[in-house]
């Protein structure tokens, strides 16, 4: 595999880009960075132009200003598309990235060619909300490393953790090395914005896929089904025996899901491609 060199937009967003064809943008989860998408970059780049970037407050991108809301994170993506001179892209968001992808599709529908929300949150129960708000409080008090061990236990199967100790150690280091204020700003949005503009989701009119893992405790199959029910024509996929970090733990499985959806979405946009002479 060719080693990709990160580039920057004028506003400072750090991103990787490779491949050719229709553009696909990957948005990582809170506490992570663009490097989480290695398996997807390898799997998708032979078919699409793949762009992965660091969200505000993460990786090599700038820290968000105090009080930045989801619109600010969506505007970061808009500036990236403008920099790359892309009129439109399919947006794939994981976890917190799924909230950003939703906000982007709502605020910039003309720039959204398709929407994929992976392992993300919607309509948390009071108990679920209380739990994640408490984790945000711990982050505010103790910093980005406050919940690392519990997060890794939620994210990965025990078998995967045992088989990949070096990767788990690297992820633990990534979490600990996050900018404290950038991480906290993002985590507080993640903890409170699961119902962001829920009453407007019916206005999303692009091909959409909402997917999660059967065993994802924080981004449950029920959440995926409820979110998909709000978006006209949205597909739902629940991957058997998968936990939260299924793009990392099972990249081939997730890649096939994404490739199948992106092909169907492209056929919908260009019906002639589906006609066999």
From TrEMBL:
Keywords associated with the record: Hydrolase
AB hydrolase-1 domain location: 23-249
Molecular function terms from GO: hydrolase activity
Pfam families: Abhydrolase_1
The keyword Hydrolase is assigned to this record: yes
InterPro entries for this protein: AB_hydrolase_1 (IPR000073), AB_hydrolase_fold (IPR029058), AB_hydrolase_sf (IPR050266), Epox_hydrolase-like (IPR000639)
Superkingdom to which the source organism belongs: Bacteria
Official protein name in the record: Alpha/beta fold hydrolase
Organism whose genome encodes this protein: Pseudomonas benzenivorans
């Amino acid at each position: 595999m060719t080693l990709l060199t990160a580039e920057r937009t004028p506003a400072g967003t750090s991103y990787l880009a490779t491949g050719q064809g229709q553009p696909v943008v990957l948005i990582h989860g809170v506490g992570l960075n663009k490097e989480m998408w290695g398996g997807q970059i390898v799997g998708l780049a032979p078919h699409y132009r793949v762009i992965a970037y660091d969200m505000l407050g993460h990786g090599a991108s700038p820290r968000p200003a105090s009080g930045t809301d989801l619109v600010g994170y969506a505007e970061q993506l808009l500036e990236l598309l403008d920099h790359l001179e892309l009129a439109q892209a399919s947006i794939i968001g994981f976890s917190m990235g799924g909230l950003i992808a939703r906000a982007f599709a709502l605020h910039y529908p003309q720039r959204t060619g398709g929407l994929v929300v992976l392992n993300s949150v919607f309509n948390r129960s009071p108990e679920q909300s209380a739990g994640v708000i408490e984790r945000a409080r711990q982050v505010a008090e103790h910093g980005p490393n406050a919940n690392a061990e519990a997060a890794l236990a939620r994210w990965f199967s025990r078998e995967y953790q045992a088989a990949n100790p070096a990767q788990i150690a690297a992820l633990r280091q990534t979490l600990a090395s996050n900018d404290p204020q950038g991480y906290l700003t993002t985590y507080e949005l993640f903890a409170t914005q699961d119902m962001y503009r829920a009453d407007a989701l019916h206005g999303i009119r692009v091909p959409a896929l909402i997917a999660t893992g059967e065993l994802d405790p924080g981004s449950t199959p029920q959440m995926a089904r409820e979110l998909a029910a709000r978006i006209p024509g949205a597909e739902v996929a629940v991957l058997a025996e998968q936990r939260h970090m299924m793009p990392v733990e099972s990249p081939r499985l997730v890649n096939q899901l994404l490739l199948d959806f992106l092909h169907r979405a492209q056929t919908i946009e260009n019906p002639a491609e589906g006609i066999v002479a």
